[in-house]
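Much of what follows relies on a compact textual record of a protein's fold. With that in mind, consider the following protein and its fold in token form.
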Amino acid sequence: MRVLIAFRSRYGTTEACSRSLAGQLEAETQCIDLSRRGRPDARLFDVVLIGGSIYGGKIQREVTWFCERSREPLLQRRVGLFLCCLYRGERAQGQLQAAFPPWLTAHAFASGLFGGALRHDRLSLLDRLLVRGIAHSAGDVSTVRSEAIAAMADAVNALLPGTPRGSS
């Protein structure tokens, strides 16, 4: 089984989470940053995991473009969705639902909220001012949820032949 993790990371948190997820998968896995490598061909993979983060209330446009341009092959594959954001609970769940097209959210076999992180030394001045209100802190913040990343990995690994819930 081949797995694609297609993501967009602005300051490195989503990339770190994507690489952590890849390291926990027991299948051949390719991580592709959508801002650097263009549009990967979803048809070459059995499972496609798509992730990004929220800026200005929306997921990055490269993630949206990848989903829309790959609609047909995505609907023919197992798809998982994940989001890195600082919010928790219902607000985070609402952001996850709003981040991806409804047709893709309805099709996804798994979704996850991986938390988020802010390292102020990496933020632009404008972003530092904007996130101060969200994070309620002028210092660094990390809410990365390793258990959510592990749960996504478990859901994918369960699809592998030979696992108790895996398909052949």
Q: What stands out?
A: The beta strands are 2-7, 28-33, 47-55, 58-59, 78-84, 110-113, 117-118, 141-142. The mean pLDDT is 86. The CA atoms of residues 92 and 145 lie 13 Å apart. The chain has one domain: 2-157.
